Amino acid sequence: MIRLDIDIGSGPRAVEIDPEDITLGFLEDIEEAQGSGKWRPIVSALGELLKLTPMERRAITLRQFKQIGNALSESVKDQATLPNG
């Protein structure tokens, strides 16, 4: 379980993510967003995963974004292995 405390202006809020519950759709969205090189799809997918409002998504700092991204990246690496094609 990943537990993140994020503070985006209205006081700290805990967000918990079970890496095993991350959907393949989220991973597809992130892969596609990274391929586009644009921020908006990445921020949108992340906001959806964390159940953030549009205003909360816009308030996330780069530091918080990196912390969330690192935590998710590490957990997904630990949980998922790609099948051999």
| Radius of gyration based on Cα positions | 13 Å
Structural class: alpha+beta
Largest sheet: 2 strands, antiparallel
Pattern of helices and strands: EEHHHH
Q: Tell me which oligomeric state these chains represent.
A: single chain
Q: What is the helix tally? A: 4
Shape: globular
Q: Per DSSP, what share of the residues sits in E-state strands of 2 or more residues? A: 5-15%
Mean pLDDT: 80
Provide the spatial order of strands within the biggest beta sheet: 1-2
**Helix amount, in percent?**
55-70%
Count of beta strands: 2
How far from one another are the termini?
29 Å
- Low-confidence segments: none
Quick take:
By secondary structure, the chain is an alpha+beta fold. It has 4 helices and 2 strands.
Describe the secondary-structure layout:
Blueprint: E1 2-7, E2 12-17, H1 24-36, H2 39-50, H3 54-59, H4 62-79
Antiparallel strand pairs: 1-2
Helix pairs in contact: 1-2
Describe the 3D structure.
The chain is of the alpha+beta class and 85 residues long. The chain contains 4 helices and 2 strands, in the order ββαααα. The chain has helices at 24-36, 39-50, 54-59, 62-79, and strands at 2-7, 12-17. It has a two-stranded antiparallel ribbon. A hairpin with a 4-residue loop joins strand 1 (2-7) and strand 2. The longest helix has 18 residues, at 62-79. It is globular. The mean pLDDT is 80.
